[in-house]
Amino acid sequence: MTSNIHVIRRAHTVVGFDTETKSHVYLNDVDVAYDDTGFVHVGGHYDGAFASETFGADRMVMPGFVNVHCHSGEEPISKGIFEDAGTAALWGNALYEYSNLLEIDDGAIEASLTVMLGDLMRSGVTTLLDIAGPHESWLPTLARSGARAFVAPGFREAQWHVEDSHRLDFIWDKARGREAFARALDVLDTAAAHPSGRLGGVVAPSQIETCSAELLQDAAAEARKRGMPITIHSAQTMAEHEEMLRRTGLTAVQYLESLGILGDNLILGHCIFVDSHSWTRQRTNIDLGLLAERQTTVAHCPVTFSRSGMALESVGRYRRAGVNVALGTDSYPFNMLEEMRQAMICARLSGKSVFDVSTADILDTATLAGARALGRDDIGRIAVGAKADFLIVDLKHHAMQPVYDPLRNLLHCAAERAIEEVYVDGQCVVRHGRPTLIDYDGAVALLQDAQDYACRKAPENDPKKRPMRDLAPLSLPVRC
After folding, report:
1. Cα-flanking dihedrals φ and ψ of residue 456, to 5°?
2. What residues contact residue 456 under an 8 Å CB cut-off, 6+ apart?
3. What is the pLDDT of residue 480?
4. What is the DSSP string of 420-474?
5. Predicted structure pTM score
């Protein structure tokens, strides 16, 4: 209906979509018109009927970011605790020994999710894939936020156990894993039928090494049956890489190929340690070819892993091999623009060249590649017929000045500070850096108590029963 159309007049810059090259392009001094069904006009002068208009001088309109891998749960309360921790015998990774120590109070789980959503949307995310344990407030909070969200309730048959800080073991309970799988499918069906129309589902066996071959294959079958993507943490650590070699003689990618799971609906969480990575023993180059041939997506989350000294080698090499590399934030700080910046830095360091990836390449990973991963051609782009998911950047913001190339300024300098507004389905979900539909400030106020609770409980969850100050010593000594 034309009565709902809003027009942005003469936007200084629009990051539009070229249907011939299937890529983003700059459009200057053009109109953009949209309603709650999507974009109805992009480019030139819009002379149709409309309900309202604003003027876009000194503004850049660009597509909302698509985050294909994040975790709510206890992640927002983990800030400042284990960044300096790691298990030396497991290549310095903190995942196995430390990630299960923190638990969130049931009363804080909605606040934790709200903070994650607020932080993601403030950094330009309009679509997200949240891998978490299901809870009563999950779908209602996601829907209330206004974001476009895909829920991925995790399930697995084995729990990690680190023995004496040097050996990774697995405690298997296949019956419990099957029960969690059944619950996850129920949640996925509920999400797909949600009246908001903005929720979807992704089948999510948690990690390749914590699921049997049978469970992985059954999960893949259910994803195909429902027409949903499937996501699996795979090739994410050297400990997992060595475990898969010990069990199967194959890399994670080759193992999934042997099970018939690689495909264009599969999103591999992280996929750092492929056979050609410099840390592995294989010295072959099979995995990237398989990923490209099967059109499997890699969910790249550089911030979390680079702070543990680990990096994918490299985004540019994966892309040149034909692999669809999309972007996720994994855990805090839940800032997509920081993730984009770190993706570029890690790629250029790993690739040993400024030419490994460009700003345009990184924008693609955060938009079009994520849309492909989710099987969508109506998000991650500004084009007639696409969903009206977009952000407005203030080109006059001091961090954006002076402007030669606005995307470079945003990615390399200003980040989320210059984002003025964020829209999903034409509805404003962030204005002047504040979420409009959720109580972000109220949720933040609850996080300190939630973190204090988690720190008190951590020694109970530690096999060695170490006090918190031994598990996570402060950065500096405390003097009275």
Report:
1. -65, -35
2. 468
3. 82
4. EEEEETTEEEEETTEESSS-HHHHHHHHHHHHHHHHHHHHHHSTT---HHHHS--
5. 0.97
Owner of token pair 């960044």? 83
Q: How far apart are CA 142 and CA 335, in angstroms?
A: 17
Q: What number of CA atoms fall less than 13 Å from residue 65's CA on the CB side?
A: 30
334: left (phi over 0), alpha (psi -120 to 50) or beta: left
Q: How would you classify residue 107: left for phi > 0, otherwise alpha for psi between -120 and 50, otherwise beta?
A: alpha
Residue 231 · residue 299 · CB < 8 Å: yes
Structure tokens at 335: 């800032």
Phi, psi of 113 (to 5 degrees): -65, -40
Residue count of the chain, please give it: 480
The full DSSP string for 130-175 is EEE---TTHHHHHHHHT-EEEEEEEE-SEEEEEETTTEEEEEE-HH
**Mean pLDDT for each consecutive 10-residue tract of the chain (480 residues)?**
84 97 97 97 96 96 98 91 94 92 90 97 98 96 98 97 93 98 98 96 98 98 97 97 97 98 98 97 95 98 95 98 98 96 97 97 98 98 98 98 97 96 98 96 95 95 94 93
* Residue 390, SS3 per DSSP: strand
**Per residue in 419-431, is it b (16+ CB within 10 Å) or e — as a string?**
bbbbbbbbeebbe
pLDDT value at residue 4? 93
CB count within 10 Å of CB 479 equals 4
Q: Are 124 and 93 in contact (CB under 8 A)?
A: no
Between CA 394 and CA 383 the distance in angstroms is 21
